[in-house]
Amino acid sequence: DVSIDKASNLVSVAVFGQLAQTQTLSLSGGVSLKELPEQWPQSLKKLSLHDFSEISSLGDLPTGLNHLEIRNCPKITSVTGVPSDCHLSELVIDQHMIDLSVITNIVIDRVTVHNSTAPKNKNWWRQTFSDFNRLNLSLSFYRVDDPTFLTELPQLVSLSPPWKLCEEYNLKDDERKTPAEVKTFQRAICKALGIETPDFLKARRVVRTKDSGEGLHLADIKADFLSGEPDKVLAALDRVKNEGSPALFDDIIIGVDADDLYHGDSKAIGDFFKKVKAGERPLARWAVTTLLSIAPDEAVQSCAIRGAIQKMVLSAPQTFNWQRKGDAPIDGLPLPSLKCFNNLDELTIAGFAITDLSCIMGNSSVKSINLKELPHLRSLNGLADLPNVQQLQFNQCPALSSLEGVSEIPSLNDMHVENCELITDFTFLRHLPLLTKFNRRWSGGGIDLSKFGVFTNIEFLSGLKSAPAIDLNLQGSLDLSVFDQLPAAKKLNLNVDTFKLDFSPLRHVQEFQLNQIYDLDGDMQRDLSDDILDDSERWRHEWSYELPNLRSLQINNGMHDFSALNAPSLTDVFMYGANIVSFQGIGHALKIEISVDSYPSLEGLEDSPIENFNIHYNREEGHKPDISLMPKIPNLKSLRIGSILTFVHQQQLIGCGKIERLEASSYTGNLGFLKGWDSLIELDLRNSGALEGLDAVEALPNLKRIRLRGAEMKRDRWPKSLQGVLDFMGT
Prior knowledge:
Structural class: alpha/beta
Number of strands: 35
Radius of gyration: 36 Å
Mean pLDDT: 90
């Protein structure tokens, strides 16, 4: 970000055009500044210019600009340079600005106007915004001498009024967010000023009179439109399409709130439909959408509403009640062409009986499409010419058997498929180089195919050049060389039915999980037979690989020999139900979690950097490793044991002089093994039983705390020399 205040000595800032990474530029107070960049950097998102008396042109601004502020720059009277496909979240100007014609057709979420040194011109508002079809105006800090101009703006659809004005005329100092609220405010201003209410603010009676003239009138179709009967509404739309004038289109959509049309109450659907019941809203929304899709260019207000819609939800509830007459399903109604909604960003279609996606065909702006509860959808034709789609979701589309049409959307980066039982072929993924998320709605980025059965060939993954993680199920000893082509895939989770696999292609992987397949169909039952599970050779693996980027390794089950593994970056190892030959090859990790019955000895940990280790067990039966090397682990600071220690282990733990903390919750037995633990600071014996060998504890020179909450031995049974370090309260 660049901010220069009081730039009085600057003559030119043309060099700013070369700041390729700059997103925000704020300049003010330059009486000598005359030259701006001819071409601003493409990265620029926000530009603010204040108090420049000599600058007369803006230069060419980037498409990605979303905030433009020009104040007290008297020679900048137009916004020439703003691209026609720009989307401004806010435009901030004052009355030095005269010509906004070049941006009247772009989306502007809010226009903020401030007072300035410009000469007063009572016609400025009407002239400056005359070509705007929709105006979202903020005047929160504007000083108003004469509010009459507010009653001369029929295109006003939202307003943040000046608080001083509201105070003067005893009006609520609240933002008017909908066209209906704005019109109510404008009528209140007319009343307060004692001026005649303009025609666009007058209530309309939808009746045919002797002065109505010939041609289709709103009164002719009102009954059908508001009948709540899909067939009659469809017939009314046909009449408007074939017989209606552009003015009739605009009459029907008066008061439509483009922002809340698909989520708000009936008022958001417009003045014509404001009294429809909640159950009839889906039909009314469909009717308005269809009407907007067929509106001619001469229907200026209809085209303006159409161009302002960014989020659309077309939903057909399973049961649609109207006027207590029974069910009138709307799922069979045809969906209109959405090609002309040129600022549509998000689209949801739910419940309609469509068989393909021809209704979306040709829409060049939509970025996110959500398709759900479409029982008859069989074809994805219509997706081919959607150049900007980035997100795509399919849910409950039981007749859809192929997603091959998705391969026509190379811009896709996020996809979700759920409850589409016929989808089994994922070869289309090879054509999606930008895809970073697949079925990862609630978690981070990655491709999750683990809910779609097992794969015997994974060459289709080769096109996923941007995927940061991959999760899938494999059957058999298949070729994993595809992962050598995916340098972005840093996380890999494989669920397999054999460990007879070659993991050498995983040289880019940083986090690797290897699991035995358990449940594939969601019935919480094992999906591998006992014969497969009991085949020890099937689950034995020798890790003879160069994995330079591997940082985290998690393995479930099997027998593993890591002695030939070269993974210099390895920091975390998690072994759950997995046995190892030794710690050689993984002993340099900072963190190792492994069950005490899963290794024969501590061989390989002699030079380990680990600071915490766990040898927890609660029974003497079963395999117990040789831990005689424990005192030689150079950085070991903390050890956890279970409720018992075998006599052999007690002897092998003597002399662990570097351990500072021992967690021995529920331990019962002799503490004599603490002899020589000269660095021990804390001894955790919570819930412990009868203890012996307290003389070894008394001899510890640095012991500061013995935690005994819930312990069987109370304070009176402890030596006097230890009373000061006993803690029976801490949790």
